[in-house]
């Protein structure tokens, strides 16, 4: 099976991300490196024992609606897996001890979660959404809501969802129509239809807590009139017991190319006029609240994409090391023995792309998780604010770059296995199918590009980008002092300057009100930024590897691999930013000027 | 349904490829534009009536082995489709009238074939392989073999396969082990196992003619000891009647991610020691013979990839024109109406990528088909030779570029449909899964890169590349005279010079025997060449479009669409060749220097 090597998590957490500094903070003082490593090992064990074995089976036996009862049934292995996850405390791991949590840093929770995602991303989606929904109630709910709805989510009695999209409003949340009418008891009567609700129906938990966006009657049009509600599948009494149906109906299950183990649903709320919802946070502030969950979810999507990329990388690496085929280009004697395909230059290229994309993406997402911790526990308010600024600009990158480039990684994993990789006897085609969802959900690739190039780059007079550039320059300065890494440092400095120049050109468009022109090629901006950020992430890893090799630490091959992937990234990938920047600086109007009627 | 617009075929055949000149040649003098157009319309009608309707169903009900009989059964619609194809004469269309053919140009046959591939590529694979196998017998078989085996393939009584790969020898044909022992009657006894044999078993035809590569006992090792054999599933008597089993056994069916309607098989030959084969061509010349079929098949794979790309393009275009979602970036009023997503710049980018890739790939593959005709019917021997030289260098490009970039096109088709595109209720996910095979079969992407950068570019002192460059320069000269296209002409001239410079650098490596260094980054060379060739193909189309618009021909929007796609290609795609060339010219050693043990 493929799994995330504990060695890799260890390297990222302790050597690259600097987890140990976090552990010294009051919130985490009960932890040390040993307890963290033990937690990671537990995750690896559970992933291997409960998640990985049914990865294929849950794909070929998707959840279905039972004829008689209308219930959604699925392989029993899924419930055993999510139960094991809950029982080990992973649903509550980062929560306060007072609430039954372990007060683990979010970074550790995310590192563990990636291990589950690599083993079985579709099954991991159930706890993924539950954790997100619980975090949302934790952030904005009342104490009563936390007691009634969040507490059972931390133990796995209740699961959660996020219910945003509607059939007529996918990416355009401004256009949702689900309505909420105030009731005398302070609750709201919810009416509407939601679509693409992952984990929207199942029998894995006693109850499902839907976090629903809806409009309170009379609210302003657009995103300023959206509120957030808790809408349980079954009503919950004061004492926590279930009080029967809350008028939430499964309209239908959606059947996907991949991610088949996760139910995707259309749900109707309030068909019988008795669907009860509870306002979370302020009226009309629903989108802002939901973005709390969405930003986390976006990084989580990137992490999942990275995990799938990594799983394909390790699988195809094992295959390439053992599959003999062909001979070196110089070999003239056809009777000479074949070599393992890992010896062919182009197979090494495909391995290096996968390693660079997946390990780089994993590092980026865990770095973002570290920023979430920083926002929460940094002693200085200024440090918290800086973490928030970095997170703002890195979130669209952490969501999109892995989704795009780890999907590509999975493409190369299939390619390395050749015909075998194209069959359903090997997991790589499933990684590829599963990963194809990631550039779509939680805000498409295009939406992320607009978020970055249309909003995040400019906020607070560009404070996020300025801070990111300063942070990258620290790494450049460090690497410039290392003779072997100095050329990379110089290349990254140029890329950073290219980003700055390009941003200035787009800033002029923005200043003059040419918003469409500014955003015409936003995905090129996202790619340019993403590649620059990943180059920085790789240089950070290379610095650690160089130091480890210089110190003569064991496992030299591991560090040489890090340096090889870094070298690959700077030779094959980073130069692409030049082409993207040239397109952007030319303010190319091809997309704007093309009339769809011509196509 | 998605299909190739007759308008597009018309434009490519008559305006871009110059089919009409072909029709004036003696072999085709019974044809005119009207008969060709009628043939294309027939293909479109059959594709729509017989091929398209079961595209999805054949994916969800793949062929399976029947319990009792061991026969491979599949949806009856597949047989009805291939029968209709045969009855309309498409299996024999390009063959001599004396053999029951229509003496159609290969270009027309391929244009029609793309229509079938766009409708249902998995069902089209059965005639695809039959046509290829028949062509192989036509080129190298004896008159007796043509009568006994080829003639029934032209009517659809027999179908064909190509049986090259073995479990231990996929890309490395030098290592095949299937053996052929001469029998007193002049036939050979065949023993061995073949894998990945598409259409290797089915009940669609009375017999299956396998074109098998095997080693005659005592043959030299490697590719110089491979011979080609006709091995029928059932023996065929002198009078053409079937004489029972020929000891060819289905070992198992392989289950693929896509292309599920086409059986993929493992076959054993001669388990009982009585599998009869017939040598085709000379002993030990099998690989050269097979390359006749493979080169055709490679262009056919490119054509299929283009057809899938095109199908996804049209489907997502229709969707984008009718799905309302979001507002222009300038729109501030959330109550203003939503616009069709085709109006969003990034959706137009995704449409333009698909159009540029799929229509460009279609044009390239039909241009290659035109060269096949030229080889066959050009009056001047020198013209035939030139066509052969161009085909040599263009075949790896025509195989690979569409396979890679029309797969990417299908990725964007899914993206445009968003969540819907990821469900199995829409065909785009199936296009994507089906197309994923194309970079693998008939020589992987890496194999094509090595063929181009290791062989084709250098053959006859670079005669192929020189001739290609001359051909491209003619288009450049023409476009340079058009003020609107002159910038594209200049960009293409630079790209061509970049290819030349890069080739010189690699040539020095080759001259000094550094073969591994020359080939280390061969896929970057293939991509650079492919993008340059496609830029040329687009400039040719743009020239036609410009002339048509200047003449005031109808359908102006169609021509504007061609110019928009050309503009897209030059703005977004062609500049990538600079990055590839820089990598190649630096003789980057990352892939060579990386030890797989480090990864």
TrEMBL record, chains A, B:
Residues 469-594 form the Acetyl-CoA dehydrogenase-like C-terminal domain. Keywords: FAD, Flavoprotein, Oxidoreductase. Belongs to the acyl-CoA dehydrogenase family. It holds the Pfam family Acyl-CoA_dh_1. Residues 40-156 form the Acyl-CoA dehydrogenase/oxidase N-terminal domain. It comes from Rhodospirillum centenum (strain ATCC 51521 / SW). SUPFAM superfamilies: Acyl-CoA dehydrogenase C-terminal domain-like (SSF47203), Acyl-CoA dehydrogenase NM domain-like (SSF56645). Residues 284-454 form the Acyl-CoA dehydrogenase/oxidase C-terminal domain. Residues 162-269 form the Acyl-CoA oxidase/dehydrogenase middle domain. It is an enzyme of class 1 (oxidoreductase). Signal peptide: none annotated. This is Acyl-CoA dehydrogenase, putative. It comes from the Bacteria. Its EC number is 1.3.99.-. InterPro entries: Acyl-CoA_dh-like_C_dom (IPR025878), Acyl-CoA_Oxase/DH_mid-dom (IPR006091), Acyl-CoA_Oxase/DH_mid-dom_sf (IPR046373), AcylCo_DH-like_C (IPR036250), AcylCo_DH/oxidase_C (IPR009075), AcylCoA_DH/ox_N (IPR013786), AcylCoA_DH/ox_N_sf (IPR037069), AcylCoA_DH/oxidase_NM_dom_sf (IPR009100). Its cofactor is FAD. GO terms for molecular function: flavin adenine dinucleotide binding; oxidoreductase activity, acting on the CH-CH group of donors.
């Amino acid at each position: 099976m493929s799994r995330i090597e504990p060695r890799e998590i260890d390297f990222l957490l302790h050597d690259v991300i600097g987890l140990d500094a976090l552990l010294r903070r009051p919130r985490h003082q009960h932890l040390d490196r040993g307890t963290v490593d033990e937690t990671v090992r537990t995750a690896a064990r559970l992933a291997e024992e409960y998640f990985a074995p049914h990865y294929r089976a849950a794909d070929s036996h998707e959840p279905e609606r039972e004829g008689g009862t209308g219930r959604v049934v699925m392989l029993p292995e899924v419930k055993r897996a999510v139960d094991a996850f809950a029982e080990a405390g992973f649903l509550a791991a980062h929560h306060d001890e007072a609430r039954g949590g372990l007060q683990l840093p979010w970074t550790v929770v995310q590192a563990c979660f990636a291990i589950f995602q690599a083993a079985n991303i579709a099954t991991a989606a159930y706890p993924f959404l539950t954790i997100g929904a619980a975090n949302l109630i934790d952030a904005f709910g009342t104490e009563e809501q936390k007691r009634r709805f969040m507490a059972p989510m931390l133990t796995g009695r209740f699961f959660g969802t996020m219910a945003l999209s509607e059939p007529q409003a996918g990416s355009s949340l401004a256009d949702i129509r689900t309505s909420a009418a105030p009731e005398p008891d302070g609750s709201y009567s919810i009416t509407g239809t939601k679509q693409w609700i992952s984990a929207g129906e199942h029998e894995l938990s006693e109850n499902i807590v839907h976090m629903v966006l809806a409009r309170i009657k009379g609210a302003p049009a657009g995103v300023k009139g959206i509120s957030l509600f808790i809408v349980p599948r079954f009503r919950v009494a004061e004492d926590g017991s279930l009080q029967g149906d809350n008028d939430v109906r499964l309209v239908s299950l959606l059947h996907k190319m991949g991610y088949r183990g996760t139910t995707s649903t259309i749900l109707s709320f309030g068909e019988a006029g008795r669907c009860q919802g509870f306002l979370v946070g302020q009226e009309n502030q629903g989108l802002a609240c939901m973005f709390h969950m969405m930003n986390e979810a976006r990084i989580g999507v990137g992490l999942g994409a990275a995990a799938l990329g990594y799983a394909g990388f390790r699988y195809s690496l094992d295959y390439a090391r053992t599959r003999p085929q062909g001979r070196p280009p110089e070999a003239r004697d056809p009777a000479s023995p074949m070599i393992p395909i890992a010896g062919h230059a182009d197979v090494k290229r495909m391995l290096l792309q996968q390693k660079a994309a997946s390990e780089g993406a994993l590092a980026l997402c865990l770095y973002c998780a570290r920023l979430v911790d920083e926002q929460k526990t940094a002693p200085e308010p200024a440090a918290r604010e800086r973490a928030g600024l970095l997170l703002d600009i890195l979130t669209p990158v952490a969501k999109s770059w892995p989704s795009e480039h780890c999907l590509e990684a999975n493409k190369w994993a299939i390619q390395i296995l050749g015909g075998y990789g194209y069959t359903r006897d090997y997991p790589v085609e499933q990684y590829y199918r599963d990963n194809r969802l990631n550039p779509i959900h939680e805000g498409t690739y295009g939406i992320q590009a607009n978020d970055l190039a249309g909003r995040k780059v400019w906020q607070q007079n560009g404070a996020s980008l300025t801070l990111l550039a300063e942070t990258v320059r620290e790494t450049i300065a460090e690497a410039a002092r290392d003779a072997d890494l100095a050329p990379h440092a110089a290349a990254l400095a140029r890329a950073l300057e290219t980003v700055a120049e390009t941003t200035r050109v787009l800033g002029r468009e923005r200043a003059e009100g040419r918003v469409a022109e500014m955003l015409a090629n936003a995905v090129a901006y996202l790619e340019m930024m993403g590649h620059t950020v990943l180059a920085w992430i790789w240089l950070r890893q290379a610095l650690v590897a160089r130091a480890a090799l210089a110190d003569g630490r064991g496992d030299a091959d591991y560090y040489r691999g890090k340096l090889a992937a870094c070298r690959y990234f700077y030779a094959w990938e980073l130069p692409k930013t030049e082409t993207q920047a040239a397109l952007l600086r030319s303010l190319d109007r091809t997309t704007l000027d093309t009339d769809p009627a011509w196509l």
